[in-house]
Amino acid sequence: MSSEHAHEDAPPLTEEIAPGTAADPAVGGTERATVTVDGTPVTVEAGATLLDAVEAVDTDEYVPALCSYDRQEIGPRSECRTCMVETEAEGIVPACSHPAEDGMSVSTDAEAAAQARDVNLDLVLSNHNLRCTTCGKNGRCELQDASIEQEVEEPRYGVLDERDEYEPLDDTSSFIQIDRNKCILCNRCVEACNDVQVEGVLRMEGSGQDTRIGFQSDAETMEDSTCVSCGHCATVCPTGSLVEKGIEDATTIPIPGFTQKNSVGKAIESSGETKGPMTPKKRDTDRREDPDAAASTPNAPSADDVATDGWAGFEGGEWP
Amino acid sequence: MTSIIAADGTTIRISGTGPPSDLLAVARESDVRAVAVGSTGVPALEPLVTVTNGGETAVHTDCSTAELDTVVASVSGGSDIRAAEPDAVVEHDPGTATLPPVDLPGLDVGRRRVLGAAGWRRPTDAADHEAAGGFDAPETTAVLDAGADLRGRGWGDLCQDEPLAPTWETTRDADGDPTVVVNAHGNPTDALLLASAPFDVLEGATAAAEAVGADGVIVYASTADERAVETVRAAAANYPDPPVAIDVVTGPAEHRAAEPTMALEAIEGNHRLEARIRPPGPESVGLHGQPTLVHTPRTLANLAVALREGEADTRTVTVEGDVAAPATVELAASDTLSTAVDAVDVDGEFKAACVGGRFGGLTADLDVAVGPAALSAADLGTEGVVQVLADDRCVLEFVGQRTQFAADENCGRCVPCREGTTQLAELLRDIYDGTYAPADIRELVRVMDGSSICAFGVEAGRPARTAVAEFEAELQAHADGDCPTDSCPQPAEVT
Ligand code: SF4
Ligand code: SF4
Ligand code: SF4
Ligand code: FES
Q1: How much distance in Å is there from the Cα of A63 to the middle of ligand 4?
Q2: Is the Cβ pair B321, A123 closer than 8 Å?
Q3: What is the model's pTM?
């Protein structure tokens, strides 16, 4: 945390920022290392990952590495798994978060790695509303770039095409628009907001299919959040999920009557109230002191159930 | 308190999963020594009352207060322990520190080492544990030697199916202050050990702590396992001169909270549980950034018993599912799954078993040894939980529910698990519409297995993968519009 943030209206201290993400270890290699990538030796500095080595050579096969950002201390989130490569010693590993260690040998065209990159990119697309023609990032979207380069023609699992499953656009802020249907959960915005801007506005929340970008204050919308409109989150966002207002339609293809907003069909609009200067709310309950205090016990089996029912504690998902 | 092991006169033990206050009150009306011990692991027989005199023990299963009244009256009247019509009588070494094998289902199989204290020693009484040879602090070299042979038990263990010693070495050599986390979350045997044999677990944990130079042990369990948590807290408080500090904390009951890095997140107090990436793993950068061992109670109790008695390769197995009542037994690694299943009453005809917990592998063949090598070779899981499926249970429905559970309960972090489980559930649903695509299922599961961040995603596809391999005909029948067990909705009803 730098002292330039210690002005009045001070943003929350880093220790109090609750981004909802795991406390990952630092992942770089411990020292300068020479790694062989598809037969070509590459030397990378201490702190490097295998992706640094992969990016330094012309690889046999394309490695999308979609969620990787690796600038400004953001990432690696290592969630998309479209950067899998095969290593001699450890089988397939995510290049973006695997330490580069001396003597490692990596191949990009090994079948298992290529299959994992391909399937995982299709899995990302399966939960993405592919309405590129009405998207403000059309033509400058990293997911588009990766899909084109990977020569995706027909994603195996389709795309998110059911309009009633779409989350409404958050169009409440006069500065940033959120379309969560385009979010790949790369966490860049959360880190940009918390670790770079030290604003503590955004967080990761939920789990499973409900995992989403939300706010650390109890706000439901961008307008009610403690956002100071610095725009950093939109700058780092690889897709059209976070877009600066005013350019949300900038690159859309003008089809009469079809706009970015009605492509999704639902939007939460601004309340129209003018807001005073943003005062970052300090979070209260997020990283709690006493895990006992807030631990939840949904559907916890009681000792009696365990004794009498052979399936106690093994509820399944709803089926079919 | 003095030990009840090899005590003079008659000793009545009352064993069960719940607090035995009614029975204890009855027994204490007489002058016979009566104590509460933990569950044996076979709740179908409990409350279980044993009456021991010298080298002989009479066993009364499912004992009511009225029955106990009779037993107590008989014994305090000076009658032989056999007089009150017990369900079984066993003869044993008068000084035995473990429940002797009894000719009753569940108590007649295997050899109770790790489960030795369960149902025999008072869980929180240090004297009983000491009489069993406990609290004898081992040399560090002996611990390291034991760790070279011993493999971690369960998916909550950092060293699942791997020898402990290499991981310990990493922790010893890492910068920082090591901690040992006892991860008791989510496995029935682990909960049983905390509730019935906590000193064995704590003794193993302190031995591991000394071996890696850790200054603290943190026991972590699900809030749902109240008795286990209470008991281990009491045992920690009674631990004589613990060499390191022992704390007990709980985390949410969710399945994923047992994954070792999510356990660390829960202990640190994160409100949202997701897995951490690795390498480096917790053994070098773990709790609060410090090197951390994460072992299950099963692993640690095995360590403690190995240090006292020498290595003996046993595995605990909990059998549940379509059974009259679940049971936990301890078997030699070379015993087969069928020995474990024989310990319970199957509800109906046996059809298949899901071996290895919630995301175990399906098999109809129980002629597989319970050791990790044989299980892995058969694509079955090593979690030590076997779920029986009776013949009226539909494999597609079972696998579908497990897969949908994975889709609902994953942490949401990585694509192969978060999106993969959802698409896998869809591929299984497609079967009802006539599309059974085994190659697509295999491809997806392979990628989930090979590229997920944590064991949740690695294992989540195993039920589906093994169903495709072992129950192809049943899946195909659904695609042709027929559920062989008539338990699925007809294709037309599926929306
Ligand atoms: S624009 Fe708002 S939400 Fe985005 S980084 Fe800046 S403060 Fe955070
Ligand atoms: S909104 Fe954008 S930057 Fe944030 S997680 Fe989603 S895709 Fe990544
Ligand atoms: S495998 Fe599943 S549970 Fe594990 S990190 Fe990935 S999404 Fe989370
Ligand atoms: S780039 Fe490595 S996991 Fe996304």
Answers
A1: 10
A2: no
A3: 0.92
| Residue B361 bridge partners (DSSP) | B355
Q: How far is A274 from chain B (nearest CA, A)?
A: 33
Structure tokens belonging to residue A202: 């955004």
Q: Does A162 touch chain B (CB under 8 A)?
A: no
8 A C-beta contact, residue B98 and residue B197: no
Largest CA distance in chain A: 65
| Record: contact B407-A317, CB cut-off 8 A | yes
A99 touches chain B (CB under 8 A): yes
CA separation for the pair A24, A73 (Å, rounded): 13
Phi (first) and psi of residue B186, to 5 degrees = 85, -5
d(CA A144, CA A151): 10
HSE, CB side, 13 Å, CA atoms: give it for residue B298: 32
Query: How would you class A112 by CB atoms within 10 Å of its CB: exposed for 0-12, middle for 13-18, buried for 19 or more?
Result: middle
Beta carbons of A204 and B405 less than 8 Å apart? no
Question: Which segments of chain A have a pLDDT < 70?
Answer: 1-15, 248-259, 273-308
| pLDDT, tens digit, 9 for 90 and up, residues B203-213 | 999 999 999 99
3-class SS at A265? coil
Whether pLDDT at B355 is above 90 = yes
CB A106 within 8 A of CB A54: yes
Q: Are B441 and B468 in contact (CB under 8 A)?
A: yes
Q: How many whole angstroms separate alpha carbon B144 and alpha carbon B281?
A: 20
Q: What is the pLDDT of residues B252-296, one digit of tens each?
A: 999 999 999 999 999 999 989 999 999 999 999 999 999 999 999
Q: Which of residues 125-154 of A touch B (CB under 8 A)?
A: 126-127
Residue tagged 């080595």 (tokens): A53
Return d(Cα B362, Cα B321) in angstroms, integer. 13
- Look at the alpha carbons of B426, B432, B433, B436 in this order and tell me if their dihedral is positive or negative: positive
What are the Cα distances from residue B46, in Å, to B87, B133, B411?
Answer: 12, 27, 37
